[in-house]
Structures are given as structure tokens and as C-alpha cells.
Amino acid sequence: MKNKTIKDGLKATIFWIIVAFFIVLIISAIAIKFGKEKFSMATNLIDIITVKTNENVQKAVPELKTFEKENLTLLTNCPSYGENYATLKIPSINIELPIYYGTTFDLLKNGIGHEIDSYFPGEGGSVILMGHNYGRLLGKLPEAKIGDSIQVTTAYGEFDYTIYDSKIVKETETNKVPIQMEEEILMIYTCWPINNIGYTTERYVVYAK
To answer: Which pLDDT score, from 0 to 100, does residue 63 have?
Structure first.
């Protein structure tokens, strides 16, 4: 049984190495076709895909890299879906919670979820976090005030934000929680009313820069 497990592990490792190899060939071909200025972006994508697809390889530490020609700052070696990659602290309301990459029900039971379509801290765009309105999670979020500090600590750096606004919005008003890359805005939301149990159609949102 032990030998079979080892063989299965080796087969899985070889399979993902082959997959990564073909991905490298495809992305390299695209880089050559569209110009050398895209090559650094292509190799960045290779790193991200390799780390995500091969769980048997030791994970590299995430790092922010600047691509000057594209005027972009991107996180390489991104967290895997479901990974606890950061910690959220709001000292004024005594909140300290783990941040998970993803928003499944199981993840939100234990901490804060990071909307996967939004950016990572430090990338310069919208960072969208969410959590349940339970007391031990974001039940105190409405008590945070304009000017309060929010800290997000990751393996690749610590990011400090200051609250500048808060709103109650309908769940359908996605324009009130926009994904953009003009400036880095941290948006944290939870269900509203805070003491409501079950599904609600409104959200309480805190905005910070």
C-alpha cells in the first residue's frame, strides 16, 4: 500500500510537470508573437500557474513585482484558493482575523474571505474582503469610524489603510463595490442589518485607502 501511494504521488508530480511544460511553450510562443516587452509578463504567469497546479512542489513566497512597460505591479506566486495568506486587524474595534483567498461558506465560518476577482494588497487596485456579521467576525464593523486604521499583514509585506467612508448598499449595487485599478482601495463588507439572522439583501461597506 505504501509503495502504491508513492507511485501515485510520483505519477501526479510527473503529470503536472508535463502540464507546466506545455503551458511554458504556449505562453512563450505568445510572448514571441506579441513582442519582447510581454516576455517578463509571460514568465510571471508561468510562475503563478506552476505554483497553483503542482501542490507537490514547495510553495514560493509571494512577491510584488513591477512591470514598468505595462505600468503594473503584480503579485507573483499567488496564494492557492482557500489559503490563509494574510491577517486583518482593525485595532479600534478589536478585530484580528485570518484572511482566506476565496469566499466559500466554510472559509467564511473561520475568518475573512478575499474576493478572487479583486486585487491583492499592494497591487494598486480594489481589494475586496467580506465576512459574516457574527459577533466574533465582523459584528463590530459598523463601530469603526472614519480615520480608523486597518492593517493587512501578508508574507510579502504589511499594508496600512485609513477608513474614509462607509455605506449601506443593496447587494445588487455592485457599482458601490467596484473592481478597478486606478487606485488602491480596501473595501470590507458584511451583511446588514448586523443583528439579522439569515439571508439579507443589504450590505454594510467600509472603504479605506
So the answer is: 94
Q: How confident is the chain (209 residues) per 10-residue block, as mean pLDDT?
A: 47 62 58 43 44 53 88 93 97 98 95 97 98 93 98 97 98 96 97 88 97
Which numeric CATH code is attached to 84-208? Answer: 2.40.260.10
Active-site residue, from 90, 141, 144, 191: 191
114 in catalytic set: no
| Per-residue pLDDT, 178 | 96
Question: Global pTM?
Answer: 0.72
Catalytic option among 132, 140, 167, 176: 132
> Any catalytic annotation for residue 132?
yes
What does the chain look like in DSSP terms, one character per residue? -HHHHHHHHHHHHHHHHHHHHHHHHHHHHHHHHH-GGGHHHHHHHHHHHHHHH-TTSPPPPPEEEEETTTTEEEEESPPPTT-EEEEEEEGGGTEEEEEEEB--HHHHHHSEEEPTTSPPTTSSSEEEEE----TTTTTTGGG--TT-EEEEEETTEEEEEEEEEEEEEETT-GGGS---SSS-EEEEEEEESTT--S--SEEEEEEE-
Name the residue ranges covered by the structural domains of the chain: 2-58, 84-208
